[in-house]
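Note to self: the last two entries modelled the partners one at a time, which told us nothing about the interface. This time every component goes in together.
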Amino acid sequence: MQWNSTMRRALLSAGLLLAVADISTARGIGPTEIGVVVASRGGVQVRRASASDWKPITVGDPIYVLDELHSEASGRAKLLFDDESIVDIGSSAAVAVKNYAKKGTNNVLSLAVGRIRVSLPESASGDDSAFEIETPTAVARGAGAIFIVDFDKGEALTHIYAISGTVGVQGSIGLIGPSLQVAAQRKTRVQEGKFPEPVQPAAADELATLESGLELIGTGRQDGIAATHPLLTGALTRSDEKPGAIAMRSGVAPVATGGSYLEASAPGETLVERLSPAVRANSQPIPEYEFAPPHEIPPPSNP
Amino acid sequence: MRRIQLQWSALLVVVAMSLTTNAIFANRAFASIASQRYYAKGLVPFDAGEWERAYVSFTNATRSDSGDALAHYYRGVTGARLGFIQESIADLEKALEVKPDLQIAVLDLGVLYLEAGEYERAESWLQRAKEIPQNRFQASLFLGIANFRRGDDVAAQKHLRDAAKNPRLRPTANYYEGLVLLRQGKAKAAQGLLDDAERSMPGTELATAVAEYKTSEVPMAYAGNDEKAWSVYGELGFAYDSNVSLSPNSSRIRKSRNNAVPRIRPDYRDASVGRTQLGVGARYRFLDNEIASGAIGYELYQDFNFNNSDFNVSSHRIRLDLNSNADRWYQVGLSAYYNYYGLDFSSFFHEGTVVPWAVFYEGDVTATQVYYRFRGRDYTRQPFQPFRDALNNAVGVRQLFLLGAVGRTLSVGYQWSDNDPLSRDGTDFAYQTHQFDVEVKAPVRDWFDASLGYAVLIEDYEHPNSRTGFTFRRHDAEHQIVIRAERPLTQQLTASLDYYGILNHSNLDEFDYDRNIISANVRMRF
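The predicted structure of the combined assembly is written out below.
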């Protein structure tokens, strides 16, 4: 009964969405923005529903329903959705916004490969979050929870790690019945065609390693004070740090002529001659010429 | 009763869970959901430069979770842009307290302390930042500025030169090193650095400040030369010389190539020596105005070989250098020196040399030098007097290149010379020389300044040589190799370690020799 109800709702939502999309397109109305890129680093691309090509994302770019995103080996991104869900996309990952209705139900983010971290807001009604993370083998949801979902495409295996709050996990084949509850600092995994495995503790260092692989500081650019300091772009922060002011205090006038950085020295000697008087002093074997002067043939030895 | 037990059990479970949760959260690497939300919301206006909006979001994040290190860091970074320096320092310190491995905050905290004028704390944090490889050059730049503001010019220069190795930081580092040099009164040395900064950042405040300085009418006397008029130095060194007497490589008496009859080998005693080397010198700049500079100098060198005093060398050099001050396009000069050499404390020879030269600058980083050299040499004792007395004429050209930074140079040169003995019996020493050489000078990290030199002198003797019974001519190819590492120990004291290799290949065995010298010296200069 519940399955039928869920299916009906899903089909109705999909049909409605398609209808809205058709109407929007027909009337020239753009798609509804449902989120924004708040951080990005390395290569992360988006493909809009209405386009066939991939384009790189930057901070401030909107997210629309049916958008697909994929990250390269060095790519990471952070998305903030209108319902205040936050999704951190790790490297070599592919996600798609399959369905999204603002403050609605059945908001679905699909993870085709890779790892993401999800931070879901508390539900106003106290129910499970309307935001679901779906992989080919599992579905995870949990209002007020922070969790990591990792899908290994080669193994067809989903790992789910709960960092805080409680995450409800179901296998893709069994959306009927209650989900497996994974509490904070616990984990489970779901193989293709299977139900979730029993919950196990997640080691703190294991979680820390997973977190660090998803961490994206700030906007992903060089935001720091040092990196963006005005001095690096030629602005002066102190009026007394000008050559004229320093020279005036030091009693030094500017050099009258322009010039090169190169300073030529007096030529005519090789480097070793310049550095070593001992070498410079002599370059002919004195004993040879003491033995026989330069204008004489050296005497033969006795046989 | 059972109900009370259940209540106590439930309470214990709650307490235990609470303690566990607290323990977990105390070491957590993540912030609360609300904090993350505000933090993420702040990043978009932050990226757009809307500092006030970003600051509000980050403040909400820190209020939602005072243990959110990134929220504190970004509020600090945003606050710094709004001028809240002290508040930003507090935020960054909090961020590092929560997340000590937040490396970027270490560097930024140092910069904030620098902005606040707290130089000791700034240096402490910047030194820590410098140990993080990706922060090294930025940390060096701000360490240089901190030391400049504190008045420590030596430390400032050291750090700024390190920072200048990074192309992005080079203009700012050069600008501040220019200021350091100006403060020391070294306008000429500052000029190149300031010019580089001006050219690298056209249209900026920095470039404008340099341009204003260069065009300012300063009511002071010309002070283009940086060093004081007088300088003196003393030098002490120890050396190993593998072949002080230029003993031939072949120990046999051969007649192979010259067909000469076998003969008695000359007595090459104690060719390999250790020695002490002493040097003193002085220089005085007697002319220094907008048109020209002139200086005279005197250098004395004396060495003491431990086991063969026959080759103790004494050298006295008096030199005169005159040159025009460098125009943007060219410079001309004239150097002249008189050398007197003694062996074992008795006169050996003396010579006078005059070298007029000109340098043509092709932009800022290459230059061509051309010169003519005249030398007259007079030997005062046997066995060379009078046979090696000669006039020597040479012309040469040298191309100089700057290798990406001030102080890194490459030069290549060619010289042709003709040695013309004055004595009719001096035909053994009539020769023409083609000389090719290359020199590279560059600092090696912070360790030392390196000089590498190689020269090959192709010597074509013009007459049949006496060693061959005057049957055929001598041909030599002399290879000279120099490797020098020099490191300033203090402002006055410099240490150097040198290797000189002389490999003279000759078609006559008598002149085919190798000479290797390793020398360690310290020089005190005032």
